[in-house]
Backbone:
């Protein structure tokens, strides 16, 4: 009899791909409290949080079955990222529909789009996008990272960047172009949404 409780997350994923539903049940039990708490803390509506929680694990199952899960020892971060992206999708959809549920009892009447520049949801999403971008930038090759930071964080012109790094303006522009291409690729691979 296989002891799934003692297996690492990636070993459980592998066992699940080989047909063991019990392996996935173990993964679910291992991470369900943390994922649901994370979703509920942001959403604040138990029914919606439950829907997103279920959708998170359905998406995980689909991704694993399609062979798109990369075994890297970071299953908790991966499943959290799926939940996070679904939360952003939820807020985007709600924003586009511009609906306010009448069954929510604690409604902040001042937290309305037409009364302010940004809602709390916009602020949460914007902060998360900034954090995601910082993490993605750190994964760029050093020369691309250097140009990107000089341009966006220090607000330098490409002429100034070229002078400081000792390269031509075209080289600095090329590094920036490749940095942006790589950021998009990494974001896509990690299923990170970078738009509000």
Residues:
């Amino acid at each position: 009899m296989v002891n799934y409780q003692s297996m690492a997350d990636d070993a459980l994923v592998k066992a699940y791909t080989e047909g063991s539903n019990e392996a996935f049940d173990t993964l679910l039990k291992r991470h369900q409290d943390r994922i649901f708490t994370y979703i509920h803390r942001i959403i604040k509506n138990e029914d919606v949080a439950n829907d997103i929680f279920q959708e998170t694990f359905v998406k995980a199952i689909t991704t694993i079955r399609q062979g798109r899960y990369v075994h890297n020892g970071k299953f908790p971060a991966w499943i959290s990222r799926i939940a996070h992206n679904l939360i952003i999708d939820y807020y985007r959809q709600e924003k586009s529909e511009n609906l306010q549920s009448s069954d929510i009892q604690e409604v902040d009447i001042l937290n309305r789009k037409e009364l302010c520049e940004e809602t709390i949801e916009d602020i949460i999403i914007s902060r998360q996008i900034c954090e995601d971008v910082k993490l993605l930038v750190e994964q760029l090759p050093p020369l691309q990272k250097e140009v990107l930071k000089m341009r966006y964080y220090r607000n330098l012109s490409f002429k100034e960047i070229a002078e400081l790094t000792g390269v031509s303006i075209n080289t600095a522009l090329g590094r920036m172009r490749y940095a942006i291409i790589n950021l998009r690729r990494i974001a896509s691979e990690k299923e990170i949404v970078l738009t509000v």
Summary: The mean pLDDT is 82.
